[in-house]
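#struct-help
A.M.: can someone run this one for me? Single chain, 331 residues.
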Amino acid sequence: MKSIRFISAMTALVLVLAVSGAAFAAWPEKPVNVIVPWSPGGASDLTARTLAAEMEKLLGTRLSVTNTPGGAGAIGTQAMFDAARDGYTWSANADGSIVTYQALDMLKQSHKDYASFMAVFTPNVICVPANSPFNDLKDLMDAMKARPVTVSSAGTGSGGHQAAEFFRMGTGLEYRHVPYQGGAPAVTATVKGEVEAIMQLSMEVTEMLRAKQLKALAVMDGEPLDVEGYGAIPPITKWLPDFPSVGNRFGFFLPKDIPADAKEAITAAFKTAAASDAIKKFAADRGSKVVTLYGEEAEKEMEVKASRVCWLLFESGVIKNSPDQYGIPKP
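D.P.: on it. Structure tokens below:
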């Protein structure tokens, strides 16, 4: 009789613990909406879809990726902030864009208002149409000495625009900026010859390089970039020895004030997904590398990025107000 009562009591205890556990481990209870604030096919979009496919297996819910381009990514990012702060609405973007929105007067939110989960780093590559008369970086620079060459980008303040500004500041050569609504349209415009050059992220140009639709003049890094199916791209330091490495980190950016249980579940899923073979293959195929940044480490890197990029854009006249007004120190 005592054994029966003991078993009954233990069964009741297990049920109570199960119910309590369910109450504390309820997130997620529904699908997650991932907003890509750029056109399909760009670096933010490609990274988001690959990372989402891995994370939804771990979270046990659907991560629905939607594209909302416009305003250099600010429109879709604002939509994320306008949604309920319950952890079910994310944005997919680059750190270089996130840090500029407030200083460019596109959003009220600071880069400090995000919980950042960055999975892939991709350098910028200087490319021209396949039939361009420019065969190396010297050819391009010689042309720019005579006139402003047209250079496309994903939009004002985007990674490609920042790269062009770093190039202008580092060489003293002027160019004419032609912004598009995303990296993919900017690359397509270059392939078609609508513009003469692009300084876009490697992730967004590798397919066109393999297809012989673009010609790479230099990677904006100190080391050559090997792209399978295309070959080695020389480093910009071959011509400009002191030029800094230029590129962006991609991943998910959420409001910092989401519930703790949501942030905990997202962080755990991100750490596992970012280390997956799928992400490693994705990065390798796209001329990029895995970084896996989140939490305090990501916050520190965002501060460094904000200082470097916002002051560059301020000194070049793109940002009108001094970044120190937004608490961004000069590098």
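A.M.: thanks! The chain is about 40% helix and 20% strand.
D.P.: also worth noting: The mean pLDDT is 91.
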